[in-house]
Amino acid sequence: MMLTRAFRQRALAPLVSGLVLVLAGCSSNEIIEQPDPVPDIDESVELDRVWHTSVGDGHDDEFLQLSPVYNGNVIYAASADGIIKSVNPENGDTRWTTELDERIFAGPGADGGQVYVVTRDAELIALANDGSGEQWRVSLPTEAIASPQSNGSLVAVQTIDGRLMAFDTGDGEGLWQYEAQVPVLTMRTTAAPLVGGDIVIASFANGRMVALSAEAGQPIWQYQVGQPQGRTELERLVDIGGQPLVLDSAVMVAGYQGKLALVDIRSGQEIWSRPASSFNGPAIGGGNIYLSDANGDVVALRGSDRREIWVQDNLSWRQLTRPAVSGEFVVVGDYEGYLHVLAQEDGSLVGQEHVDSDGLRVPVQVLRNGDILVYSNDGDLASYRLRQDD
């Protein structure tokens, strides 16, 4: 992740070759932690590639988070060089492709009728989800790097300067705007908002998660995930970089130098919390909670009482993606393009596959049949199947 000042200072360089390494309590002249080497493991699980397709130039050396959208029936993926592709999740066949003249900075987002992207020039574009072309576009006050999110009636976009804006999906008319105060120095990452039928939940660089009325944008509640502490701007970073996870009537969230918490979705009241520091949102599976810590540890917590079950610490500082749970396994990607498969039971490393030398930044996803959807930094969109050796 790169650091960014509010408004438009995209020229700031990444901390370490574009890698996500900001350390709690460090100053700007301290040595950045070095990633652990790829561990040698006894593999008992193979990752077989089922299909793959190319989506333009992927992130094209931009520090973006162009995560594909998967809704069970279709996958939408976008590349920085303007390619938007609709893909059949069963076999990887392309249903349609659109090429924009502009570069893409955020997206895609989608609903039942349209696909949404944000360009480098800060324009929100709506395209028909049948590939027939652009429906409308509107200008944003500054750039956005988080995917637009829609409930079919409104589409919400969060910009890097702390503004959350809602637009009518029919014609792009502005509906409302909410502004949060953000620190001078923040991580170059923004969690995509959650958009429901009557509530929108957004996470900001000031460490707050805010729920707003979908109709009017009025705040309903706010929850402090991280409290800035320390003397330097780096020490005071409390960004929420991963999209919160909705669980029935609650929402689970994790922040950098903050906590992992479960919050009542209607009242904003904390149900429970524990200290945590992560650039990613949590995952659940088999009654457990899984989190990729900012230091590269993968942590498993028992869902019933949040007690630590195991910690996998052989991937330290490898800038892991959010965990994905498939069957008996947990899968994470890393900055060098490796997929790592962990056993849910004890966290042992049981499988490994190098899928892309350009690295993996966006979270892997689990398809309906249990296969793993991977979108690499260089634009390779692929499905992998976990196979246990006999």
Question: Can you give a write-up of this model?
Answer:
This is Outer membrane protein assembly factor BamB. Pfam families: PQQ_2. Its main location: membrane. This protein has a single domain (3-388), classed as YVTN repeat-like/Quinoprotein amine dehydrogenase (Methylamine Dehydrogenase, Chain H, 7 Propeller), CATH 2.130.10.10. The chain has a four-stranded antiparallel β-sheet with strand order 2-34-33-32, with no helix packed on it. The termini are far apart. Mean pLDDT is 91; it is low at 1-31. With 390 residues, it is mostly beta strands. It has strands spanning 3-5, 45-54, 69-70, 75-78, 83-87, 94-99, 104-110, 114-119, 123-128, 134-139, 149-150, 154-158, 163-168, 174-179, 185-187, 194-195, 199-203, 208-213, 219-224, 245-247, 250-254, 258-264, 270-276, 283-285, 288-292, 298-302, 308-312, 324-326, 329-333, 338-343, 349-354, 365-366, 372-375, 380-388. It contains no helices and 34 strands.
Topology:
Blueprint: E1 3-5, E2 45-54, E3 69-70, E4 75-78, E5 83-87, E6 94-99, E7 104-110, E8 114-119, E9 123-128, E10 134-139, E11 149-150, E12 154-158, E13 163-168, E14 174-179, E15 185-187, E16 194-195, E17 199-203, E18 208-213, E19 219-224, E20 245-247, E21 250-254, E22 258-264, E23 270-276, E24 283-285, E25 288-292, E26 298-302, E27 308-312, E28 324-326, E29 329-333, E30 338-343, E31 349-354, E32 365-366, E33 372-375, E34 380-388
Antiparallel strand pairs: 1-15, 2-34, 3-4, 4-5, 5-6, 7-8, 8-9, 9-10, 11-12, 12-13, 13-14, 16-17, 17-18, 18-19, 20-21, 21-22, 22-23, 24-25, 25-26, 26-27, 28-29, 29-30, 30-31, 32-33, 33-34
